[in-house]
UniProtKB/TrEMBL annotation:
Pfam families: ATP12
UniProt source species: Phyllobacterium myrsinacearum
Name listed for the protein in its UniProt record: Chaperone required for assembly of F1-ATPase
InterPro entries on file: ATP12_ATP_synth-F1-assembly, ATP12_ATP_synth-F1-assembly_N, ATP12_ortho_dom_sf
Coiled-coil residues: none
Transmembrane spans: none
Amino acid sequence: MNNDLFNMDTPEGPSDADPVRRAQVQSNLPFPKRFYKAVDVVERDGQFAVELDGKRVKTPARQNLSLPNRALAQMIADEFAAQDKDIVPAKMPVTRLANTAIDGVVSDPQVVLEDVLRFASSDMLCYRAGSPERLVNRQTELWDPVIDWAASDLGARFVLAEGVMYVEQPRETLAALGVHLGQFKDAFAVAALHTITTLTGSAILALAVAKGRVSGEEAWTLAHVDEDWTIEQWGEDAEAAARRALREREMIAAVKVLQAIAV
């Protein structure tokens, strides 16, 4: 078996061309057997690679999985080393994010950043419940400090709304946020920022994590205020809890990638 582990086809045909979609599809494919024994990180021309029994790992698009520093490469190596008899891509979130960065972000990171900015135009933190009072108070207590931070530190003053009716954010607000997003040049950082945004529904939270205002764990809690409230009232569904745990793993992996790039 070759080491191009993530370059698998679905039973219906080739994997989706979108690396993000492909990663989702591959999570449901039959698992390949672990065929390697040794996992190593090697440096090549200032870049770092992961080798399995001396063979270099490649991305789904058959590009070399080249990492900018040893810390990031070691995280991927650790994911490969942790695999048991079967190789489970869903348990390798850093590897899949790195694949996405190389295959889908390097060529045009601006497009990905623009997608993050679109999330900001209808950011989850801006839409508040009208009732019950305890939920309203909880949202105010937990979300307002982040909204205030965006205004004071990012120069982005967001308009809040009650309910789900769309409210247009000022151009100046989105422009200010765009300036800060434009500071992210590294494809791995951009991919991680996009992952955090989509998983939380909040570009504000993603930037707050990237700039050290909140931790990944805190951002995850803030993104689930409404869901946690519902669980308190009605209990938790086991399948929903499992899906949430999987998303949280993706979230924390993205945060770790951001931290590794900042090293």
